[in-house]
Design goal:
This protein is α/β, with parallel strands linked by helices and 293 residues long. It has two domains: 13-91, 434 Repressor (Amino-terminal Domain) (Orthogonal Bundle), CATH 1.10.260.40; 96-292, Endonuclease, Chain A (2-Layer Sandwich). The chain has helices spanning 13-32, 37-43, 48-55, 63-72, 78-91, 106-117, 136-146, 152-166, 183-187, 193-206, 259-275, 279-292; strands spanning 120-125, 176-182, 212-217, 231-235, 244-248, 253-256. It has a six-stranded mixed beta sheet with strand order 3-2-1-4-5-6, with helices on both faces. The chain is elongated.
Length: 293
């Protein structure tokens, strides 16, 4: 998709992107005037760290704060001011996932929003099947294993959230998804035999969708480029928004957007795709695993 084409982000997904875009514009304006974050924070009765979070797109925006910052940065043109204030208003639209705030960590909310707004999603998984590709039964087994003390109601909510995320794959303008699953993720059992069989069948079926490319990195290949573990790469239709690499940790996540860091993951993903069997051969691998299950 070219930068000139329109993209209908998932409901609320665009708000996360707009928050990041507005933050980057505010940073450029501040830096062009030689104003420190501390001075900017003082002008809106806030801390330096608040300015940093705003510029990274990690907080919502108050119209009054944006107006004061634009005045401080010398933005006097009414059209430019209204454009940025309108962007701030759109950035504050709550995404559908906010209703799952009781079971959704704040650091993951950002990812869900970015995922909903992405035009291209590339994935590598080694522990289990990625959430976008899970069946309901498999998702239930994964959540139960990961949250052994969770209440049944919370488990159900987490599974419901995962299924809601998957709707973007069959939306009117779905993203292009290219997933590489390590064979370990497919052999490690979650749930009983029927659950695993259902999951493998689902992967075979979903891999036939025109917007989904699925490859399996087999054990037989030996050591490979994905030695650093699972990651996701998100690309957006907005030309001034850089690609983002998402790395999930136990209690937080990393969002990498520096060009040199993203380039390293680009090279790893490219090697994984080149070294894995092609999609048709990968479906044969899945069918073979299904027979063994």
């Amino acid at each position: 998709m070219t930068a000139g084409e329109s993209w209908a982000a998932g409901p609320g997904g665009g708000s996360v992107v707009r928050r990041i875009l507005l933050g980057s514009q505010l940073r450029r304006l501040r830096e062009s005037r030689g104003i420190t974050r501390e001075a900017a924070g003082y002008s809106i009765r806030a801390s330096e760290s608040k300015i940093s979070r705003m510029e990274l797109g990690r907080v919502s925006f108050k119209a009054r704060d944006i107006e004061d910052l634009l005045t401080l940065y010398g933005v006097a043109d009414d059209v430019e001011r209204e454009s940025l204030l309108g962007l701030a208003k759109e950035a504050n639209v709550a995404g559908w996932w906010h209703s799952y705030g009781d079971v959704l960590p704040g650091w993951f909310q950002t990812y869900v929003g970015l995922e909903a707004a992405a035009s291209h999603i590339r994935l590598y998984e080694v522990q289990f099947v990625h959430g976008l590709l899970q069946t309901e039964a498999y998702a239930h087994a994964v959540v139960t294993r990961g949250q052994p003390g969770a209440r049944q109601a919370d488990v159900d909510r987490r599974v419901a959230l995962r299924l809601e995320r998957q709707k973007l794959l069959v939306s009117e303008r779905p993203p292009e998804v290219h997933a590489v699953l390590d064979e370990a993720a497919l052999r490690r059992p979650y749930g009983d035999r029927a659950v695993m069989q259902g999951q493998l069948k689902h992967l075979i079926e979903i891999s036939e969708q025109p917007n989904v490319t699925l490859q399996v990195m087999p054990f037989s290949f030996g050591g490979h480029a994905g030695e650093s573990g699972s990651f996701a790469m998100l690309r957006f239709p907005e030309s001034d928004l850089s690609d983002i690499v998402y790395l999930e940790q136990l209690t937080s996540a990393l969002y990498l957007d520096k060009r040199e860091e993203v380039a390293q993951y680009e090279r790893v993903m490219k090697r994984l795709q080149e070294d894995s069997p092609d999609p048709a051969e990968s479906r044969d691998v899945l069918r073979g695993l299904l027979q063994l299950t």
